[in-house]
């Protein structure tokens, strides 16, 4: 069974029978178990599930970045190339050129002692040979403009602490996009941000998808986030896929109780209005 039902054509990202295990005192435990998923070029796949369901390890397994104690089986095909049979240097090229990742906490991903521009330049230069400093700087400024950081030409010389959380996440996205990847894996990219900023970052990801045709794997514990952006969704629980399909189908007719529970946890706009009403009724704000 695959997350994107298809008729014969091969998917851009095709993960087959992925299993990730860790050793235990009595043997081993599977934290991702026989997972299949596919994503078309330019598509957006949401992976949802509660904390500990195996979402991050799935993305690390796709990228070949699992901790050394983990074992992986199954296949990961990207544009028909089998990442699981590549050497480390080949994989590094794939990670720089074709796939990029954005993580939850933009602050811990940025080095406080270097300007954001320097860090984007470094990321770019580590994947592009023979680039001059000037070219790299131009790429950094352009990447920052692309994620709508105002006065990018000046702010490129600022340090991470001079940016808000949302702006730092924009910097991380700029860094990820600087090498023009075909696939972006975003692991809880908005979880550390407040709701308004979350919406802005999701809007930015949508815009980038529209403009570049980038394929997106969006990992989140929040089905509301998936509904904003993804066209297909995989629901994970304890390392297994419990349900998958087009977003509308999962939202309108969830088959699994676990999916229904996740949906029940999504705040609805009418609930929020109801919650606000007493404040409005008393006419006051703190
Ligand atoms: P999620 O991203 O969905 O919150 P993870 O993919 O990070 O979940 O983790 C899935 C499971 O694997 C969790 O139960 C976690 O405790 C376990 N796990 C993660 N990393 C390790 C590790 N290095 N060694 C052993 N177990 C791990
Ligand atoms: Mg995670």
Task: Describe, in plain words, how this protein is organized in 3D.
It is globular, with a radius of gyration of 20 Å. The relative contact order is 0.16. It has 286 residues and is of the alpha/beta class. Helix 4 runs parallel beside helix 7. It has a domain of 76 residues. The strands form 2 sheets. The protein has a 6-stranded mixed beta sheet with strand order 6-7-8-3-9-10, sandwiched between helices. The protein binds adenosine-5'-diphosphate and magnesium ion.
Mean pLDDT: 90
Q: What portion of residues is helical?
A: 40-55%
The hetero molecules present are:
adenosine-5'-diphosphate, magnesium ion
**Biggest β-sheet description:** 6 strands, mixed
Please report which band the strand proportion falls in: under 5%, 5-15%, 15-25%, 25-35%, 35-45% or over 45%.
15-25%
* Helical segment count: 12
